[in-house]
Amino acid sequence: MCLDFGDDAYEESVEEVVRLVESAGVRRHRVIRGKRSRPDPKLYAGSGKVAEIAAAAEGLNAAFVVFNHALSPAQERNVERELGRRVFDRSELILEIFAQRAQTNEGKLQVELAQLEHLSTRLVRGWTHLERQRGGLGKTGGPGEKQIELDRRYIANRVRVLKSKLETLRKQRTVQRRARARGDVLSVSIAGYTNAGKSTLFNALTRAKAYEADQLFATLDTTTRRIWLPGCGDVVVSDTVGFIRDLPHGLVAAFRATLEETVHADLLLHVVDSASASRGEQVREVDKVLAEIPAGDAPRLQVWNKIDLTRNKTAKAGLDPGVERDQYGRICRVFVSARTGAGLQELRAAIAEFAKERSAARRAAAAPTHPLQPT
Fold first, then answer.
1. Spatial CB neighbours of 298, under 8 Å, sequence gap ≥ 6
2. Which of 248, 285, 201, 309 is nearest to 12 (CA)?
3. Where are the alpha helices (DSSP H) in the chain?
4. Displacement of CA 251 from its chain's centroid (Å)
5. Exposure string (b/e) for 2-20, b if CB count within 10 Å is 16 or more?
6. Smallest Cα–Cα separation from 347: which of 227, 254, 247?
């Protein structure tokens, strides 16, 4: 279900949620659209549109319905009651994809934490026997606790355990970063909108074999490799999780330990899908998440990827490998194709140029401001 509230990016949002559904391994039966000036407080889509959805779901024998919007717990509960089947909002759909894709222990812990924090606001929906209470022990046990109270306590305890484990992993990452800093190793982090080609670029730069696919959130877990660049020396490159519009806040918070690689990076490579008609909106969404981490002030270099595809777009002129400099003469944008390798040499040179400027700035900062006077 996709509602139009007058957003210019509506069509792109519809395409994106379809890709999210497909990325979750679900077969799409039908896309139902609607237009409202504001969400309905009770059902979000309004009673007439919900009735249309119910009829379509019944006729198609759909297992569940996906809303391309964030529903409140009450709205989700009311819609499920009207439809008689499970309802996923956009946040839950993204959480489900993350749960399927997490491979490392840290990634699984982060996804579980985000899921539990999301579930804690929706426990009422899962229980139809809230009036039942479990009896106490022996004759003096009293009436006991309601099942929902037991569930809330279990979730709270599990959340504390998960946060403790993630904090331990965060401290380990801090130690690793300090070791790199002592060795004066340049740290480069790759970030960007999901499916912009981050993992493909990471593999092209490091000759790693990280999983890559033409799907949303193909990889979640941070992968780090050390490479050597001429004129720069050793460089540590990290591939991070992709961003998307309306990324659940709980996911950003849960993945904070992983995203700290972006926060503390010496240089941030912001990968942009140059073949996307909505690349400007995607850049703004990434900037918004980076500011939330916060990594908004981190030195960054835009990498316009997929220039090989722009030549096949009739509405765009083909982009050539090369660099673009700002008014101060610094490289601010590099045009590459991670798939074909075009522009990668220019990207390596841009990283090396940044490393030289960084070293020069550090030497200037360490130099005494006044000559020593004889005593």
1. 262, 263, 265, 267, 268, 290
2. 285
3. 10-23, 47-60, 73-83, 90-101, 105-119, 123-126, 147-182, 198-206, 249-254, 256-263, 279-292, 307-310, 344-366
4. 8
5. bbeeeeeebebbeebbebb
6. 227
pLDDT means per 10 residues, the chain with 375 residues, are 68 83 86 87 91 92 89 90 90 84 79 84 54 44 60 87 87 72 78 88 85 62 82 85 73 65 81 88 86 76 91 55 85 92 92 86 70 53
Supply the DSSP symbol for 133: B
Q: What is the 3-state secondary structure (H, E, C) of 67-119?
A: CCCCCCHHHHHHHHHHHCCEEECHHHHHHHHHHHHCCCHHHHHHHHHHHHHHH
**Whole-number pLDDT of residue 183:** 60
User: If we measure between CA atoms, which residue out of 337, 361, 363, 355 comes closest to residue 229?
Assistant: 355
φ, ψ of residue 248 in degrees (nearest 5): -55, 135
Residues ≥6 apart with Cβ < 8 Å to 175: none
DSSP class per residue in 259-288: HHHHHT-SEEEEEEETT-TTHHHHHHHHHH
Of 11, 59, 105, the residue nearest 113 (C-alpha): 105
Q: How confident is the model at residue 141, as a pLDDT? A: 44
Quote the pLDDT of residue 314: 37
Q: 44, 89 in Cβ contact below 8 A?
A: no
Q: What pLDDT was estimated at residue 56?
A: 92
What pLDDT is recorded for position 8? 59
Contact 273, 193 (CB under 8 A): yes
Supply angle C-alpha 250, 252, 254, rounded to 5. 65
Residues 122 and 125: their CA atoms lie apart, in Å, by: 6
pLDDT computed for residue 213 by the predictor: 59
pLDDT of the residue at 82: 92
Nearest-angstrom CA–CA distance, 258 and 173: 9
CA atoms of 152 and 123, how far apart (whole Å):
8
The encoded tokens of residue 69 equal 């919007």
